[in-house]
C-alpha cells in the first residue's frame, strides 16, 4: 500500500468544535487512481491536507510510501505531489520558472531542473506559454501548470483536491487525460471530487465520504452494482397523500428491487424487466403523475441510498 | 504523451540523500528563487531603498542649512551647538537603521500578509522538503540580505547629499559587521512577526501603528545620550529594538556619545531571539492547521 491511513480524526477547535474527519481508514494501492467522493464539507480537503502534512491530525496515522507523514513531514513531502483546491502558482515567476524552482527546492541540480522543466512543458503542451505569468493564464491552463509542477520532483503519489472545480468541460476532459497519463507513468493519484461522473470515469476505486466518515469503498462498477438496479425512475406526483401506498405497491412488482418515497413522489430502482416502465406508469397514473425521470444507476444513486440525500444538497 | 526518462536525474534520485542534504538543498533553492526574483525587480527595489534616506538628507541637511535666516530652523546648527556633532552625522546611522527596518517590513511582512490573505502562494512553498520553521527562517535570512543592501545604499547618499560633511569613521570593523548583521536579522524577524500576527486586511495600518512610532522613538534622528534630560523617555525607548540598531550603527560609525557596546550587542541578540521565536510561532500557526 502506497498510502495507508488508519483511524484518522481531525477536530477543529474554536468557538464551535467541528469534527471534520471522524475515523477514516484508507488504503491506496500503487498505481491506482483513487477517488474521495463526497458533498461540500464532507472532510475531503481536510483528509488530503493531513495526508500532505498541511494539517496535523487529532488522532490516527498516515503512511506515505512507508514513511510516517505525521512524524516526518519534511521528508515525506519528497514522495508527495499536491495540487490544492486553489491556485498556488508563484505569481512572481513565469510558468517555466515555477517548474524550474520547484525542481531546485527538491534538490535537483540546475542542469537536471532545466531538463525536467523542458520535458514537462512539452508533456503538458505548455510550450507556447512558457514565458507567461500565472495571472495571464486561463483556469484550465493554470490547473495544468499546477499538475506539471506538482509531479516535477517525481513524487510517488499525487494528491489532487477538486481538480475539476471551476473548469469548463473541455479543460476537464483534458485534465482527465493528463491524470490517466500519470498512471501510465506509475504515479499513484488520490483525488477528491463532488462530481460523480468524474469519480466514475476516472477512478479505479472510489470511497464515498460524508460527515467525515467513509460510507463505502469499492470500484465504481461494484458500487453501482451494489444498489441492485440498472435504472432509476423518479416519479413526481401531484397527489402526495398516497405516495407511501404507491411505493408499497410498486415494490411488489417483478423487476423492481426497491421503491421508496421521496419528497414529492417515488423513486423506483429497477433491474431491467421488459414492460416494467409501462406497468409503473399505469400504476402511477391515477395519482396524478406530473413528471418522470429515467436515469442509469450511478454513484449518485449509491450516495442517495446511503445517506438519503442528494450529493448536491 | 510520452515520457522521456532522464538517466542522470533518475540516478541521483534513486540514491536517497541524507536528511540534512535534502534540507540544505531546499533552503538553497528557496534562496536562489528569492535572489532571482529580487534581481528581476531590481529597479523598484532600488527606488524603495533610496527614496526615504535621499529625501531626508536632502531636506534636513541640504535645503534647511541653505535657508535664509535658517539658523533657528537649522537642526545642524542646533545639534552642533548642543555638542552632539552635526546633524548629518547623527542622521547617517539613524537612516541606515530605518533602511534596515523598512526592508524587513517590505521584504517579509507585506508579501507574507499578501500570501496569507489573497494568493496562498505560501501553501506551495510549505510543501518543500524542509521543516516549516526553516521556511520562515529563510525569509528572515533573505530579508536580512536586502536590509544590508539598503543600509549600504545610505552610505554614499549621506556622503554626497549633505552640505556639511559627515564625520564617519569605523573604529572597529568586526563590531560594525556584527551590528549590521544582527540588526538586519532583527529586522527580518520583526517583519515575520508583524506579517504573521497582523490580520492581512489590516496590514496597511501597521505603518501608522507600528512602523512610524518605532522609527520616531528609535533614536534615529537624535542620539540616545541626548535624551538625558528626559529620563522617562530615555528609559522608555529601551523596549524598542530600533534603538539598538541606530545606536549600534552610531557607535560603529561615528564619534561621540553612544550606548555601551556590549549592551547594544546583547540587546540585539535578545530581540533577535524573541522576534524569531514569535515570528516562527505565528508562521507555524498560520500554515499548519
Ligand atoms: N481551518 C478550519 N477551521 C475550522 N473548521 C474547518 C477548517 N477547515 C475546515 N473546517 C470544517 O471542516 C469540515 C470539513 O471541511 P473540508 O474542507 O474538509 O470539506 P470538503 O469535503 O473539502 O468540502 P468542499 O467540497 O467544500 O471542499 C467543514 O465543516 C468545515 O467547515
Ligand atoms: Mg474541499
Task: Please tag this protein with its features.
heterodimer, A: 313 residues, Rossmann fold, Alpha-Beta Plaits, four-stranded antiparallel beta sheet, 14 strands, 28% strand, elongated, B: 289 residues, 73% helix, disordered N terminus, binds adenosine-5'-triphosphate
Task: Explain this structure.
- The complex is a heterodimer of chains A (313) and B (289).
- Chain A is α/β, with parallel strands linked by helices.
- Chain A folds into 2 domains: 3-222, P-loop containing nucleotide triphosphate hydrolases (Rossmann fold), CATH 3.40.50; 228-296, Alpha-Beta Plaits.
- Chain A contains 11 helices and 14 strands.
- Chain A has a 6-stranded mixed sheet with strand order 6-7-8-3-9-10, sandwiched between helices. A 4-stranded antiparallel sheet of chain A has the order 2-1-4-5. Chain A has a 4-stranded antiparallel sheet with strand order 12-13-11-14, covered by helices on one side.
- Chain A is elongated, with a radius of gyration of 23 Å.
- With 289 residues, chain B is an all-alpha fold.
- Chain B has one domain.
- Helix content of chain B is 73%, strand content 0%.
- The chains are: A alpha/beta (313), B mainly alpha (289).
- At the A-B interface, α2, α3, α4 and α6 of A face α1 and α2 of B.
- Bound molecules: adenosine-5'-triphosphate and magnesium ion.
- Adenosine-5'-triphosphate binds at residues 12, 14, 18, 20, 38, 40-46, 194 of chain A.
Amino acid at each position: 500500500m502506497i498510502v495507508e491511513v488508519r483511524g484518522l480524526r481531525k477536530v477543529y477547535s474554536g468557538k464551535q468544535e467541528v469534527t471534520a474527519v471522524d475515523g477514516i481508514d484508507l488504503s491506496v494501492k500503487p498505481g491506482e487512481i483513487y477517488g474521495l467522493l463526497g458533498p461540500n464539507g464532507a472532510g475531503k480537503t481536510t483528509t488530503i491536507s493531513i495526508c500532505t502534512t498541511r494539517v496535523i491530525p487529532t488522532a490516527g496515522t498516515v503512511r506515505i510510501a512507508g514513511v510516517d507523514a505525521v512524524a516526518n513531514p519534511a521528508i515525506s513531502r519528497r514522495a508527495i505531489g499536491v495540487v490544492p483546491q486553489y491556485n498556488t502558482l508563484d505569481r512572481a515567476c513565469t510558468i517555466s520558472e515555477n517548474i524550474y524552482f520547484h525542481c531546485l527546492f527538491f534538490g535537483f541540480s540546475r542542469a537536471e531542473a532545466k531538463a525536467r522543466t523542458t520535458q514537462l512543458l512539452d508533456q503538458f503542451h505548455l510550450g507556447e506559454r512558457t514565458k507567461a505569468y500565472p495571472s495571464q493564464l486561463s483556469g484550465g491552463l493554470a490547473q495544468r501548470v499546477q499538475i506539471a509542477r506538482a509531479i516535477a520532483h517525481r513524487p510517488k503519489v499525487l494528491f489532487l483536491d477538486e481538480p475539476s472545480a471551476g473548469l469548463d468541460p473541455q479543460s476537464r476532459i483534458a485534465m482527465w487525460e493528463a491524470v490517466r497519463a500519470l498512471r501510465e507513468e506509475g504515479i499513484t493519484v488520490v483525488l477528491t471530487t463532488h462530481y460523480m461522473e468524474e469519480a466514475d470515469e476516472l477512478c479505479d476505486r472510489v470511497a464515498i465520504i460524508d460527515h467525515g466518515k467513509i460510507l463505502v469503498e469499492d470500484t465504481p462498477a461494484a458500487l453501482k452494482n451494489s444498489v441492485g438496479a440498472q435504472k432509476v425512475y423518479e416519479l413526481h406526483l401531484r397527489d402526495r397523500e398516497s405516495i407511501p401506498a404507491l411505493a408499497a405497491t410498486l415494490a411488489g412488482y417483478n423487476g423492481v428491487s426497491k421503491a421508496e418515497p421521496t419528497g414529492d413522489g417515488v423513486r423506483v430502482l429497477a433491474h431491467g424487466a421488459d414492460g416494467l416502465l409501462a406497468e409503473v406508469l399505469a400504476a402511477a397514473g391515477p395519482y396524478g403523475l406530473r413528471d418522470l425521470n429515467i436515469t442509469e444507476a450511478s454513484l449518485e444513486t449509491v450516495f442517495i441510498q446511503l445517506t438519503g440525500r442528494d450529493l448536491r444538497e | 504523451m510520452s515520457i522521456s526518462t532522464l538517466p542522470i536525474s533518475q540516478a541521483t534520485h534513486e540514491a536517497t540523500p541524507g536528511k540534512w542534504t535534502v534540507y540544505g538543498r531546499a533552503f538553497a533553492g528557496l534562496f536562489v528563487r528569492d535572489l532571482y526574483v529580487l534581481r528581476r525587480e531590481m529597479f523598484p527595489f532600488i527606488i524603495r531603498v533610496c527614496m526615504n534616506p535621499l529625501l531626508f538628507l536632502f531636506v534636513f541637511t541640504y535645503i534647511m542649512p541653505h535657508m535664509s535666516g535658517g539658523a533657528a530652523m537649522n537642526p545642524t546648527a542646533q545639534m552642533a551647538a548642543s555638542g552632539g556633532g552635526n546633524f548629518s552625522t547623527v542622521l547617517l546611522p539613524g537612516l541606515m537603521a530605518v533602511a534596515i527596518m523598512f526592508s524587513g517590513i517590505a521584504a517579509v511582512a507585506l508579501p507574507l500578509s499578501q500570501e496569507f490573505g489573497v494568493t496562498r502562494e505560501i501553501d506551495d512553498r510549505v510543501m518543500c522538503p524542509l521543516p516549516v520553521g526553516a521556511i520562515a527562517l529563510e525569509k528572515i535570512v533573505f530579508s536580512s540580505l536586502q536590509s544590508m543592501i539598503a543600509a549600504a545604499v545610505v552610505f554614499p547618499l549621506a556622503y554626497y547629499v549633505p552640505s556639511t560633511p559627515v564625520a564617519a569613521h569605523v573604529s572597529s570593523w568586526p563590531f560594525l559587521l556584527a551590528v549590521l548583521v544582527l540588526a538586519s536579522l532583527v529586522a527580518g524577524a520583526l517583519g515575520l512577526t508583524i506579517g504573521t500576527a497582523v490580520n492581512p486586511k489590516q496590514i496597511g495600518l501597521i505603518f501608522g501603528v507600528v512602523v512610524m512610532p518605532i522609527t520616531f522613538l528609535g533614536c534615529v534622528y537624535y542620539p540616545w545620550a541626548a535624551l538625558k534630560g528626559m529620563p522617562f523617555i530615555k528609559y522608555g525607548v529601551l523596549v524598542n529594538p530600533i534603538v539598538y540598531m541606530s545606536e549600534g550603527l552610531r557607535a560603529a560609525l561615528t564619534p561621540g556619545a553612544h550606548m555601551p557596546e556590549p549592551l547594544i550587542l546583547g540587546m540585539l541578540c535578545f530581540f533577535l531571539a524573541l522576534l524569531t521565536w514569535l515570528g516562527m510561532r505565528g508562521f507555524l500557526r498560520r500554515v499548519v492547521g
